Amino acid sequence: QEQLVESGGGLVQTGGSLRLSCAASGRSFSGYAMGWFRQAPGSERELVARISRGGSTYYADSVKGRFTISRDDAKNTLYLAMNNLNTEDAAVYYCVATRLVILSTLPHDYEWWGQGTQVAVSS
Q: How far apart are CA 6 and CA 25, in angstroms?
């Protein structure tokens, strides 16, 4: 069974840091682009960061310079290092993967989704 399982979420103060991990199983995702979406209450899902199979990265403007996406294909694991967090970063963060080679920010273009991990930021 193919699965993406996120971990590393939690409560952090404004200005703090968290590192999310996404452990993939059931198949190798090394040939696919992977990324992180987030969804805050009352908001649509937003692509936060994406990394291609070759390592090229995309970041939403709101997180550029603060978040870093990386992947370890030997461990079949995706990461998101988040620094200088603020209250607008509070959301459920989802690990995703897609066969699509070109960049897409649309949720329906991502075939695999994890269950999500909650990130809360206190002011």
A: 12
Asked if residues 11 and 120 have their Cβ atoms less than 8 Å apart, the reply is yes
Rounded distance between C-alpha atoms, residue 46 and residue 63, angstroms: 11
Give the whole-angstrom CA distance, residue 101 versus residue 109.
10
Judge whether 80 and 72 are in contact, CB under 8 Å. Answer: no
Which CA distances in Å does 119 have to 6, 40, 74, 108?
A: 12, 10, 27, 23
pLDDT tens digits, 55-65: 999 999 999 99
CA distance 103 to 49: 11
Q: pLDDT tens digits for 68-84?
A: 999 999 999 999 999 99
Do 4 and 96 form a contact (C-beta atoms < 8 A)?
yes
At residue 123's C-alpha, the angle toward residues 60 and 105, to 5°, is 15
Which residue's structure tokens are 């590192």? Answer: 19
* Among candidate residues 91, 93, 98, 97, the one with its CA nearest the CA of residue 116: 93
